[in-house]
Amino acid sequence: MVEGGAVTKPDKTEFSECWRTSWQTPYIMKMALSAGIGGLLFGYDTGVISGALLYIREDFRSVDRKTWLQETIVSMAVAGAIIGAAVGGWINDRFGRKISLLLGDLLFFVGAVVMASAPFPGMIIVGRIFVGFGVGMASMTAPLYISEASPHRIRGALVSTNGLLITGGQFLSYLINLAFTHVKGTWRWMLGVAGIPALVQFVLMLGLPESPRWLFINDKEEEAREILARIYPEDEVEGEMEALRASVESEREMKESEGNLLQRLKDAWGNKVVRRGLYAGVTVQVAQQFVGINTVMYYSPTIVQYAGYASNKTALALSLVTSGLNAVGSVISMFCVDKYGRRKLMIISMFGIIVCLVILSAIFFRAASTSPSVSTFESESFGKNSTCPAYVDAPDPSSWDCTKCLEYSGCAFCSNKQGKYKTGACLDLNDDVRDSCRSEKRTWYTKGCPSKIGFAAIIFLGLYILFFSPGMGTVPWVINSEIYPLKYRGLGGGIAAVANWCSNLLVSETFLTLTTALGSSGTFLLFAGFSIIGLVGIFFLVPETKGLSFEEVEKLLKKGYSPFRKHEDKDDD
């Protein structure tokens, strides 16, 4: 997955045991899937805005002309998620996991309704913030609830369903986008439909209990026992109660010795094991975002249009492929991460990402340099008032081509009747001119130009996803669940997660601005540069944690990790 909470990777035996146990006790799967809808909402929101944005731009001309407004509509959900995750942690502890999920559903539902009924772009932004609050709460609460309400022997497999539902939600969002391409209200339906699974989860969660661990912590032992009796066989309940009691008492003792947050942060940074763990954990989380993955997830149809596919429906259909590949990559990761190791999988992933980004940069550069030319005859055939003002006032309009035309925010390219690769027109960007262009069976381009090699961009975009998903998509979360000492695991993982969300916000808020300033080619090349820096950081800072106990990882970091030291050295003092 692209974002989320800490993941415990299950093995094949655990999957088999999960299937057997869930078949015998359906109540377990009911709890896991009901909570897992939070992951589905998370994934749906990530994917749906990419398609809805195409139609929001058509309905609101101010959005189409202002890239910062498009970026804000997309990224405000991420900003809301940062706040939602932070507040959600307090709500989880104070009021419980169930209340947190219910509140997240309510916020998500309100956000979906506000967006679907928005009369102007500002209301869409408000709705995105509400949705972000819900996403942030769901991203941390859903896996926590599943983990605490699952038998320990299948916990990893059940928690992993949340990750699958995230990628499944992304795939579903593209299907929904395609379904509403020819329905009146397009983007309103796309964004509004998200309220349905939120409502479904709200109703399901009303009939489910609080997590037994939270109940036990809050001195409701009998209620906790009743829930454990529905999860475990009768002869295991008392043993689980004793294990829960020991775990909670240990946690309380640890919290009493920790002090306030500021003191905990100071102690963590002063501990060289934690500090080195943070170097590794934060590096992989920031690298995950700065390879540009969420530009693909949030702006995938727009990127497809940059490749020369002007039709919204075609852009959405091709984007569906990237979303499907992301889901496939998540499944591949489950079977590879414990076989090949975390470090190796990330390094291979980064190499593939860098190669794909460099090739994508070359493809977009080639497409821009060979775009169809623009002529005064073609442009003025729609009337002088329809011609792009920047083209009319240009000192040398004969040198213009489609790429030059689209550099100006008020211009669009209308292809030639005889073929989209022939000389076309540079026209004013407004609805009436667009309709005149299309009425002559021409194609209207606003983001990218006709290109004979556009299909190659789609192929390498798909390969980029396939390299990203099994490695950098999931492994950073695995690393952060394994690399910190027990006392600082929550704090370290939280710091790394905040780094991930903030990096996500920065990248998603600047992508369209970068493409305007640097072009598609320059932007992908910039991400390739960031990826190289990330690869170097991973190589020097991130140790292999496959097959190591927490104590062995701590010992490795205490000594100081070096990629040039043999793995066996971890046992030396």
From TrEMBL:
It is found in: Membrane. The chain crosses the membrane at residues 32-56, 68-87, 99-118, 124-146, 158-180, 186-208, 345-365, 453-479, 491-512, 524-542. Residues 31-546 form the Major facilitator superfamily (MFS) profile domain. GO terms for cellular component: plasma membrane. GO terms for molecular function: myo-inositol:proton symporter activity. The keyword Transmembrane applies. It comes from the Eukaryota. InterPro entries: MFS_dom, MFS_sugar_transport-like, MFS_trans_sf, Myo-inositol_Transporter, Sugar/inositol_transpt, Sugar_transporter_CS. Keywords: Membrane, Symport, Transmembrane, Transmembrane helix, Transport. Pfam families: Sugar_tr (PF00083). It is a multi-pass membrane protein. Belongs to the major facilitator superfamily. Sugar transporter (TC 2.A.1.1) family. Its main location: membrane. This is Major facilitator superfamily (MFS) profile domain-containing protein.
